[in-house]
Amino acid sequence: MSGAGIRTALTELVGVRHPVVQTGMGWVAGPRLVSAAANAGALGILASATMTPDRLRAAVREVRSRTDAPFGVNLRADAGDAAERVRIIVEEGVRVASFALAPSRELIARLKDAGVVVIPSIGARRHAEKVAAWGADAVLVQGGEGGGHTGNVATTVLLPQVVDAVGIPVIAAGGFFDGRGLVAALAYGAAGVAMGTRFLLTSDSTVPPAVQARYLAASVADITVTTKVDGLPHRMLRSELVAALERSGRTTALVRAVRQAASFKKLSGLSWAQMVRDGLAMKHGKDLTWSQVLLAANTPMLLKASMVDGRTDLGVMASGQVAGLIGDLPSCAELVDRIMAEARETLAALPR
Q: Which of 1, 29, 276, 285 is most buried (CB neighbours < 10 A)?
């Protein structure tokens, strides 16, 4: 490993060597990637939303068999079985729980009482203020450049807002891939950076080579935001499928959603009742039709088609805009070493 890390409030909070987080990407952030990121000195986050509870427990144990370093698990706060997944995290002694949506005050309290560090992901200042008031230990702030579900406020605008609003460590996400970005985030007051696409494009990632090649070939202009997958803004690579979804009518989309929902039910272990409850949670507070809520069932299966099965013609490829700037597949260890070396060089080169 290269020289000493940069100590920040994040490294002190979770016990990692470097202020770098590998985000919990569905179908991508499995035991192999998470353990490789953790062994590299970053905080690896296991994605649990596409796992059954039993598979989650097995995955946590597999990560622990591969590394002694701290790692975390990402949860959907609005999932019908969120409480069961929290129980697994507590029982298995996981260090960090991250959330794709703001968790309830009760879930935060339960995790903190068990000594688990709670880090929700947020996309607006008011959400950060809310979870901080409820006891969250840190927040991960994703700007509009980030992959997957995203907002329309750039990281450089959102990040300083949140840093100024809360008194807990802030992790910056959306647009980060190198040591220069880490230094920029630290200058804004962040305690570290989180990266998804950059870790997806490593040799430790299980994403099929043909899919990684599509990412590496993409330019910044090849990454778009669409609402046609599940009714919410979703950043991904342009593809023939995305173009077809953009052209499809409501009836065609609805038929596809029903079929994909049935497939996801088998894989996730969720009952129809749980899926309906999750749909209700998703609809609450959002201007979505019931057709759009049902279309959300497409997302896990469309992601699986690409990220697991390698079918770029049948799946979608969530992506941050930084895919257009990435051209190699280092190991996690090589990537983190490179980022930290670049960060130290950048700091040393700043005018004094």
A: 29
